[in-house]
Amino acid sequence: MAVIFVIPLVWMFVVSFKPEGVSAITMAEWTDFSDLTIRNYAKVLVESQILRWTWNSFVIGAVTTLITVIISSLGAFAFSRKNFKSKGFLFILCVSGLLIPTEAMLIPLYETVLSMDLLDNMWGIILPSLTNPLGLILIKQFMDGLPKDYMEAAQIDGGRDFRLWWSIYMPLTRSAMIAIGIFYFIMSWNNFIWPYIAINSEENMVLSTGLPTFLSNNVLHVNTIMAASAIAAIPTMIVYIFLQKHIVQGVSMTGVKG
Amino acid sequence: MKAQQAASGWKRQLKNEFSAIAFLAPFLIPLLVFYIWPLLRGAYISLHSWTILGMEKYVGFDNYIKILTNSDFYKYLWNSLYFVILVVPIIISLGLLLALLIHRKIPFQTMFRSVYFLPYVLSVSVISFIWLRMFDSKHGLVNVILEALGLSSVHWLTNPKAAWWSIVIATVWWTVGFVMVLFLAGLQEISQELYEAADIDGASSLHKFRFITLPGLSSVMKVQIFFQIIAGLKLFGQVQIMTNGGPGDTTNTIIRYIYVTGFKKDMFGLAAAQSTLFCIFMLLIAAVQYMVVNRKES
Predict the structure, then answer these.
(1) Which of A77, A154, B16, B91 could serve as A159's disulfide partner, Cβ 3.0–4.6 Å?
(2) If contacts are CB pairs under 8 Å, which of residues 93-122 in chain A contact chain B?
(3) Nearest CB to A232; choose among B38, B126, B286
(4) A27-85, pLDDT tens digit by residue?
């Protein structure tokens, strides 16, 4: 079973190193290492803006993740540690995003972003994806699990709410925030439909929306397209191999308790 | 004195309310601007004849009548539902199976987990490119393997029935590891003592699975079925890249239909009405699921 899972990836890499027109299909082709070439990679790097797209994806992912985690933590603090009248209503408002995804409201979102003059702009991608309810719920659950004594002790010291959050609650939920952050980063990196619509100039595209432009380019061979896919796949695969434990932990947290 | 106290209590409460909302503001503001406002705005646009440039003319419920009396909307909504019906049972059961296989203390446990999860970190474009080529009728690996096994090759992306399976297979390969990881986490939370007690009672492994494992995983299962249904209804990237909705319009989904109506045909008002109807449909699905889950519990 595991072998079946790996085959598509191995195939992608093998084909990407074969000369144009040669697919790795027969056993002889799989094991023939004499004709391997890096020309496909060179072609993609020279003829497309793939490095630029990778950079855009990275920046958007990093900024989105950082802001989302912080605003979710602030919100979680209010819901977990404060009592206020509109709490119930605001909580339902905040988690309502789980029910209707962005994909279902492309048209009005486009109108909104257009009216703010943020189309074809990095911020047009970042801003609509900031309020992810999952992170808020999870960090809140983590904070709920912390003893109330911290709150009381700090209040006796005359600590204000913001300092409480900054110096006690945020550090104590750090592991949850890292795990959720990694999860957000993957989500942002894989985000497709919204950047596909909101970005139209090639230099502002992200990796996931830049790749399909290869399909309309009839000159490119399978081998070149596989090289492009490999270039797009390598960064996340490397990150995954190094941060495996955190990523798996983050995913488990977001899915089990969400 | 009492009035003064009441006043200061009221003041304190107001202050408390403000400070809580101050903490929530950074989350609430983008939520209002990029979620709540577009929802309302969408309802407004849907009552107009509207283009990308915003040329508007009030038309009342014309757009809705047009959609509801035309079979296309139902057809593509059904396509999305059909995908959900195909993919969700496979993803949930295969994810569970993989989790059960790996959960036993087998050698290379971590390695297997990594392998199954790995595709999930790739973007939809990469997985679509890979499978687009894997399913190529002449040079694709899938048909080569089928032929090597003595089976006949299939025109995966141009045969209407096979096209859906191409999308399903690519999607399962991409996301099943994610579901598996969640089931693994769920399995780890089931108390080992339950199994030991069952062993003493001489329960069969099927019994243990039915009465300990499945109930232990029920909360993960519910959450996952919910999220996988929503994810299935959102299907867009794979069809956009792999089949372009084809052959014909077999794999055209509701999201792609809205996308084409709005951005390709420039009928923004109509597309906004389609969006609004789809949002209502999503809410209905959520409500039905909520009721089903709650009835089972009571």
Answers:
(1) A154
(2) 93-94, 96-97, 99-101, 103-113
(3) B126
(4) 667 777 778 888 899 988 988 899 999 999 999 999 999 999 999 999 999 999 888 88
